[in-house]
From TrEMBL:
It comes from Oreochromis niloticus. Monomer. Interacts with TFEB. Interacts with the 'Thr-172' phosphorylated form of PRKAA2. Interacts with CREBBP. GO terms for biological process: acetyl-CoA biosynthetic process; lipid metabolic process. It holds the Pfam family AMP-binding_C. It catalyses: acetate + ATP + CoA = acetyl-CoA + AMP + diphosphate; propanoate + ATP + CoA = propanoyl-CoA + AMP + diphosphate. One of its GO terms (cellular component) is cytoplasm. Residues 73-488 form the AMP-dependent synthetase/ligase domain. This is Acetyl-coenzyme A synthetase, cytoplasmic. The gene is ACSS2.
């Protein structure tokens, strides 16, 4: 008695196995699963943490994403991707048939290079079709891809290659990001050189006896080095070393476009994706085959209300989990047509997004709050230059969206016609875990609303007790769903201590969350982003939201600064809208605004005009650095993920020294 109910307010919590078992019938299985559908231990006090979904069943995701759509579902000539380049007019169309052929060809190339099932392959590429081809070619032969966002430095790339012991690197010659030419091959070469330098020390000790499951060969024979170039689309001087570099086009010449898929167990590793730890080295989040496939396919279908004639566009980069789950896996599993965009929302001008929406008649659009706030700064005119009449559902991802940006997205971009799906999830969760369902869940601006089917959240207080009704505390999950991560590559111990040790019996997200009287969830940001002002816990997100509601403010970030009496004081950074001047009058207004919205306890102690904020390359504000600025500490630690370091210098120069 637990079929997928179209009654959206009923989260399906009682028998997820039956629900997911029905979903699994829509996929191809070479052999059936043997054990329980979903088997797990979430309690460290009872032994090792594990999650297994459909263990014993074998399948291949690439086969499910491509072959079945081409051969069984008659989608061979349907467009899989409209590729839109950095420059308007630079475009390509790829059908499901073409994608399948290209993936099979490249899979054969990988095999010819000696890549086997279980081997790790590092991919460092811009948003070109070849990136999708490379990742699915790995999947076809059972190799594990580890995609590193092409905005990361050589040092970061090397660190990730070494950590996952990749045997091959796939990269491109170069590309333009906006006006800026990125010579990617040069960075890739630098990374490989660093790997060779480290080889003697780290590679030799790479055999890790503590690693509990057999995720492929652990002997570190090569620290890598075949380099494949996409094509010379841009004029860069590509350094070329014939001993290690191979050219993509040359390798494909004469290669068959048929390749038998490698059948993999449900719990074989699918990919590794690194996420920065707040301390220490990045964590290689590992996802496995079947659970991830079922989960991304289903969340995509339900959360975007996918219809066969949709044109879907997710603006994320495939180098992030959003691009893995909701550009590649989820959409292709549903036979969807997507836009694959290489460029930036501001290039050549701030209308680019809406121009693309009209060009392809995009129906479902998925982007990040940081992009919305960025575009909001330029007012309504650049949006209204285009019709956007095809849009039906708007989504957000990456961080909680502040109500101000939500309203603009809803009223101006969607003209009050399009429901907004504010999706909360993480690299670790694999797919959406808290989200509205479009036109079914009543929306509240800034709330990710309710859990997805089979997801069981709870809010805990500091002592680990579950809070009932309206409350605020730690967001945790009580049981797994098929798409949750399985381990941290190479360190199951770190996996357990990061996510399961603090509150035994629960998966701990690390995010704070409030539940209102209607049971809606409001994620307030990383729990380390809470402030303790005179014993009152304040979420920085709430203060930021109050600041951004002022018409002069485009973006705000709030951090704590130690205070002898109050414990912590509020140090606020504000970025103003285009053309607005910063002055003391505005400062007074901002203080008043926060006091009125939240209360006297939240009155800002310092406000600094910040023309730019330090952000990661994925657009997340780096609060850690802002705290350093607030406290005038110049030891910055690891800033490899920082997009633009000049911003930090500027902020140091204009620090506030006295409270306002
Ligand atoms: C988009 O829709 C308009 C009008 O509905 C139509 O004229 C146009 O051909 C469509 N464009 C594409 C690329 O389908
Ligand atoms: C929450 O934590 C406090 C101690 O920190 C405890 O006294 C209280 O009973 C806990 N539980 C609830 C449900 O508030
Ligand atoms: C907040 O700070 C006060 C001291 O200023 C401390 O006694 C209290 O335990 C802190 N509360 C939390 C939840 O950290």
């Amino acid at each position: 008695m637990c079929k997928l109910m179209r009654l959206p307010l009923i989260a399906l919590t009682s028998c997820p196995a039956e629900f997911w078992g029905d979903v699994a019938k829509d996929f191809f299985w070479k052999t059936k699963h043997t054990g329980q559908f979903l088997d797990y231990n979430f309690d460290v006090t009872k032994g090792e943490i594990y999650i297994k979904c459909m263990e014993g069943a074998s399948t291949n995701i690439c086969y499910n994403l491509l072959d079945r759509n081409v051969h069984e579902k008659k989608l061979a000539d349907k467009v899989a991707f409209f590729w839109e380049g950095n420059e308007p007019g630079d475009e390509l169309t790829v059908t499901y048939r073409e994608l399948l052929q290209r993936v099979c060809q490249f899979a054969n190339v990988l095999k010819a290079q000696g890549v086997k099932k279980g081997d790790r392959v590092s991919i460092y590429m811009p948003m070109v079709v070849e990136l999708v081809v490379a990742m699915l070619a790995c999947v076809r032969i059972g190799a594990v891809h580890s995609i590193v966002f092409a905005g990361f430095s050589a040092e970061s790339l090397c660190e990730r290659i070494v950590d996952s012991q990749c045997c091959l690197l796939i990269t491109a010659d170069g590309f333009y990001r906006g006006d800026k030419l990125i010579n990617l091959k040069l960075l890739a070469d630098e990374a490989l050189q660093k790997c060779r330098d480290k080889r003697s020390s780290e590679c030799l000790q790479a055999h890790r006896p503590g690693f509990r499951r057999d995720f492929g060969s652990l002997t570190f024979s090569v620290c890598v080095c075949v380099c494949v170039c996409v094509c010379a689309r841009v004029c860069v001087q590509v350094p070329w070393n014939p001993e290690v570099d191979l050219c993509w086009d040359a390798l494909l010449r004469g290669v068959s476009d048929e390749c038998e898929p490698e059948w993999c167990d449900s719990e074989d590793p699918l990919f590794i994706l690194y996420t920065s730890g707040s301390t220490g080295k990045p964590k290689g989040v590992l996802h496995t085959v079947s659970g991830y496939m079922l989960y991304t396919a289903t969340t995509f279908k339900v959360v975007f209300d996918h219809q066969p004639d949709d044109v879907y566009w997710c603006t994320a980069d495939i180098g992030w989990i959003t691009g893995h789950s909701y550009i590649t896996y989820g959409p292709l599993a549903n036979g969807a047509t997507s836009v694959l965009f290489e460029g930036l929302p501001t290039h050549p001008d701030v209308s680019r997004m809406w121009e693309i929406v009209d060009k392809y008649n995009v129906t479902k659009f998925y982007t990040a709050p940081t992009a919305i706030r960025l575009l909001m700064k330029f007012g309504n005119e650049p949006v209204q230059r285009y019709k956007r009449s095809s849009l039906k559902v708007l989504g957000t991802v990456g961080e909680p969206i502040n109500p101000e940006a939500w309203q603009w997205y809803y009223n101006v971009v969607g003209e009050k016609r399009c429901p907004i799906v504010d999706t909360f999830w993480q690299t670790e969760t694999g797919g959406h875990v808290l989200t509205p369902l479009p036109a079914a869940t009543p929306m509240k601006p800034g709330s990710a609303t309710l859990p997805f089917f089979g997801v069981v959240p709870a809010i805990l207080n500091e002592s680990g007790e579950e809070l009932e009704g309206p409350s605020e505390g730690y967001l945790v999950f009580k049981q797994p769903w098929p798409g949750v991560m399985r381990t941290i590559y190479g360190s199951h111990e770190r996996f357990e201590s990061t996510y399961f040790k603090k509150f035994p019996g629960y998966y701990v997200t690390g995010d704070g969350c409030r539940r209102d009287k209607d049971g809606y969830f409001w994620v307030t940001g990383r729990i380390d982003d809470m402030l303790n002002v005179s014993g009152h816990l304040l979420s920085t997100a709430e203060v930021e939201s109050a600041l951004v509601e002022h018409e002069a403010v485009a973006e705000a970030a709030v951090v704590g600064r130690p205070h002898p009496v109050k414990g912590e004081s509020l140090y606020c950074f504000v970025t103003l809208n285009d053309g607005v001047m910063y002055n003391s009058e505005l400062e007074v207004e901002l203080k008043k605004q926060v006091r009125e919205k939240i209360g006297a306890i939240a009155t800002p102690d310092y406000i600094q005009n910040a023309p730019g904020l330090p952000k990661t390359r994925s657009g997340k504000i780096m609060r850690r650095l802002l705290r350093k600025i607030a406290c005038d500490e110049r030891e910055l630690g690891d800033i490899s993920t920082l997009a633009d370091s000049t911003v930090v210098e500027q902020l140091f120069q204009n620090r506030c020294c006295t409270a306002v």
